[in-house]
Amino acid sequence: MKRALPVCTVAALLATGALARGEDLFELQKVADGVYAALAKPRTPINCNAAVIVYDEGVLVVDTHSRPSSAQALIQQIKSVTDKPVRYAVNTHFHWDHAQGNHAYPVAFPQQVAIVASEATRQNLVQLGMQRVRDQIDAGPGQLAELERKIA
Length: 152
What we know:
Layout: H1 7-20, E1 26-32, E2 35-40, E3 50-55, E4 58-62, H2 68-78, E5 86-90, H3 96-99, H4 104-108, E6 114-116, H5 119-151
Parallel strand pairs: 4-5, 5-6
Antiparallel strand pairs: 1-2, 2-3, 3-4
């Protein structure tokens, strides 16, 4: 029997393909001078929306998305409105679709960016975040089987 790719692998391939094709994962809508809503385009896996605030010394991004590749995509889109570096990435809460892109910011802006969160969010990321990721990975085969059942 052929082994199916895990859902997370399929999702990563979909995201990588979108980046390779140069597709924008977000619609940047100007809200006010220097303030943008980064609205996630519908696709799998889900990304959260974000706020992008351009100020004198840099950029502040609210929520870092479901994976580093999504954050990298938003970083590229931010470059279409400013050449300033992202100085702050704010995690509003610990849910995976809002915080798993954290890693992309220090990679893109070494020694320039701070990840900001409340103490409760930081503790939840440490105590609950990885277990949620494990639970989602464990649920992947069942979700894939259900999708295959629906397709059939």
